[in-house]
Design goal:
Elements (H helix, E strand, L loop, with lengths): L10 H6 L5 E3 L9 H9 L4 E4 L5 H14 L4 E6 L10 H13 L16 H10 L4 E5 L7 H7 L3 E6 L2 H9 L4 E5 L5 E2 L16 H11 L4 E4 L5 H9 L4 E4 L1 H4 L8 H9 L5 E4 L7 E4 L2 H8 L9 H15 L23 H18 L6
Parallel strand pairs: 1-9, 2-3, 3-4, 4-5, 5-6, 6-8, 8-9
Antiparallel strand pairs: 7-11, 10-11
Helix pairs in contact: 2-3, 3-5, 4-13, 9-14
Length: 367
């Protein structure tokens, strides 16, 4: 099939230089290995390195590893939220963390280290390494970084959770808007998490057409998209592509912890909650002992990034002990559609094949 006859070859594909309108989400914390990113890009989608918590030189090394595996376009995701610490409520929060940490043998009362502010140094590496596409969460690139990226010919994609955010991101020069519905796993991309304490929780099917009707740049649907049905539906809603995160967490190339993968594969659509207790920002993940006990305390978590730094020792100990009860198990709501250790390329091709079939066949009604 000629690419221009392919219903999946949208203007988004031409803009990003990809064959299929699928973006692998930039999930921070280790799942997005160079192998995963490269496999998605090689299969025709856009792989994304989740670099928000990475030191600049580690990003450089990962980018070079990706380039050794593929010559195709890829993206790197950064957090643009201010990294200003606020430990004014640490004395209130610390007893809860000490109680939970004690169950893992974590020493109590340790004062958290200052949270590093890496954004400008991370961005500098992306420019030096000529990363073609920069992905952002929690808002568009701040100035002068946004202007620098534009002048250098880099494309910028930004997650948005409301029409208001979408229009603000577009006005700031973003080239692609990723409309993140409430179904999505991980951190809500909401710009102002104080205004929206749980993050904006507009569903994907409600958000995407409203953003697509008002934005002039391409819109990508995110949240609950796991297969070709989700891609076909997104295109019919006015999106030009989809972003899949949870779907790739159990892929063969995923760097997600083994205990995390098992928890995902055992989960159902009713097992996730939105919590601020791991990072200080609202994020959707699997309900576990850490969330239940922390929420039951009645204590409000500290702001991001301080709370994220403070919970780090517990999460790290849980990972070492393979104890998913205390890990941040970010997950979307379509968990029953996950598969075990499927190669990322097969996921991309399978989603595309199913979507083409559905778009060619028209509506399907079951008796």
């Amino acid at each position: 099939m000629n690419r221009y006859e392919d219903p999946l070859y949208t203007p988004l594909c031409r803009l990003l230089g990809i064959e299929l309108p699928m973006i692998q989400a930039g999930m921070a914390g280790g799942p997005t290995t160079p192998e995963l990113v490269a496999a998605v890009s090689e299969a025709g989608g856009l792989g994304t390195l989740g670099a928000a918590y990475m030191e600049p030189e580690a990003i450089r090394e990962a980018v070079r590893s990706i380039r050794r595996l593929t010559a195709k376009p890829f993206s790197v995701n950064l957090f643009v939220a201010p990294m200003r610490d606020d430990y004014s409520r640490l004395a209130e929060v610390q007893p809860v963390l000490d109680r939970l940490g004690a169950e893992l043998g974590v020493a109590s009362g340790a004062e958290p280290a200052p949270t590093p502010d890496r954004l400008e140094r991370q961005f500098a590496v992306l420019m030096e390494e000529q990363v073609p596409i920069i992905s952002t969460a929690f808002g568009p690139l701040p100035e002068p970084l946004g202007r620098t990226a534009s002048e250098a010919g880099r494309l910028v994609t930004t997650m948005v959770t409301t029409v208001e955010e979408a229009l603000a991101a577009e006005a700031a020069g973003c080239d692609v808007l990723v409309a993140q519905g409430s179904d999505a796993g991980g951190h809500r991309g909401t710009f102002d998490s104080e205004r929206h304490r749980d993050g904006s929780l507009v569903g994907t099917f409600s958000l995407v057409p409203q953003v697509a009707d008002r934005a002039k740049v391409p819109v990508v649907a995110a949240g609950g998209v796991m297969d070709g049905r989700g891609l076909a539906a997104a295109l019919l809603l006015g999106a030009q592509g989809v972003q899949l995160g949870t779907r790739f967490l159990t892929a063969a190339e995923s760097g997600a912890h083994a205990a995390y993968k098992e928890a995902l594969l055992a989960g159902t659509e009713d097992d996730t909650v939105v919590t601020r207790w791991f990072s200080g920002r609202p994020a959707r993940g699997l309900r576990n002992r850490f969330i239940e006990e922390a929420e039951r305390s009645g204590v409000q978590p500290m702001p991001f990034p301080s709370h994220n730094t403070a919970t780090g020792p517990i999460r790290q100990a849980a990972a070492k002990q393979h104890d998913a009860r205390y890990m941040s198990l970010w997950a979307g709501q379509a968990l029953r559609l996950l598969t075990r250790d499927t190669p990322a390329a097969d996921i991309v091709r399978g989603v595309a094949e199913q979507a083409r079939g559905l778009l060619a066949a028209g509506p399907v009604y079951r008796e």
